[in-house]
Amino acid sequence: MTDWLGLSGRSAVVTGAGSGIGQGCALALARAGVTVWALDRDETALAATSQEAAAGGLAITSLACDVTDVHSVSTAAVTTGAVDILVNAAGIGHPGALLDVSSDDWQRVLDINLTGYLTTTQAFAPAMVERGSGALVHIASISSRNPQPGSGAYSASKAGVALLSQQLAYELGPSGVRSNTVSPGLVRTPMTEAYYQAPGVAERRDAAIPLRRVAHAEDIADVVVFLASDRARYVTGADITVDGGFATTLMGTVPRPGYDR
Q1: Is 131 within the bounds of a domain?
Q2: What does the DSSP assignment read for 36-68?
Q3: What is the pLDDT of residues 128-178, one digit of tens each?
Q4: Domain for residue 235, yes or no?
Q5: Please, are residues 114 and 159 in contact by the beta-carbon 8 Å criterion?
Q6: Share in percent of the chain as helix, strand, coil (round to 5)
Q7: Neighbour-count burial of 78, counting CB atoms closer than 10 A to its CB (0-12 exposed, 13-18 middle, 19+ buried)
Q8: Which of 218, 185, 240 is nearest to 23 (CA)?
Q9: Is the residue at 78 inside a domain?
Q10: What is the secondary structure of 191-226 as a DSSP string?
């Protein structure tokens, strides 16, 4: 059976496609036969994505775009024209305890991680509504349900993404447009690479996960591609956790004499 996902000939916009999960999603969609527009504010990173695609015999069109700038996003939407799929993967993190985080740092994370997702949806979803079909996939996080201490607005922004997607699913469902989130656990990306350079951290992180390895961007991208496809045609308003089983380990951290494995 060929083209099991039925994505050949479709078109997609992927934000944050210059690196990490966004880049992984852009490449995975291109492999599935999708015409991909890769958006990112970092043009150097976009060039790297295009080069990696070319090395694999794929074609991805890069487009500089800042998701915090409404004009930039609307200009991108005019350039790409109507698309079938929008993947919101742009994101940043910024350390800081909540009592210490500055209003500027708080707002910056929300502007990219949450408001940026709404801005891109407002730009690209209307054409889907008019056509009567389309798929929105947003990158949330297990941090949307499990507070990540010392990370400023990050958990709050990802919780907002989860509810934003559910509301979009409710409002756009009658028009044939689906909206879902993917919530990664630990993923080794350029944004988190500094953690793994500290001695012993990579090994400890691998050991904390039931599948015994930290995810790569491709692990998340494969689920995104599924949600973008017609194989997920009756899935909307859902969140799929992709964490190697990490979220199942909470009770295992609590001492329970007599219940040790």
Answers
A1: yes
A2: EEEEES-HHHHHHHHHHHHHTT--EEEEE--TT
A3: 999 999 999 999 999 999 999 999 999 999 999 999 999 999 999 999 999
A4: yes
A5: no
A6: 50, 15, 35
A7: exposed
A8: 218
A9: yes
A10: TTHHHHTSTTHHHHHHHTSTTSS-B-HHHHHHHHHH
3-state secondary structure (DSSP) of residue 178: strand
- The catalytic residue positions are 154
Picking from 214, 195, 184, the residue whose alpha carbon sits closest to that of residue 25 is 184
Using DSSP, state whether 188 is helix, strand or coil.
coil
> What are the distances in angstroms from CA 208 to CA 50, 195, 202?
34, 15, 10
Instruction: Tell if the pTM clears 0.90, that is, is over it.
Output: yes
Which amino acid appears at position 132 of this protein? G
Q: Provide the CATH number for the domain around residue 233.
A: 3.40.50.720
User: Residue 138 forms beta bridges with which residues?
Assistant: 88, 181
- Domain hosting residue 246, numbered range: 11-190+216-253
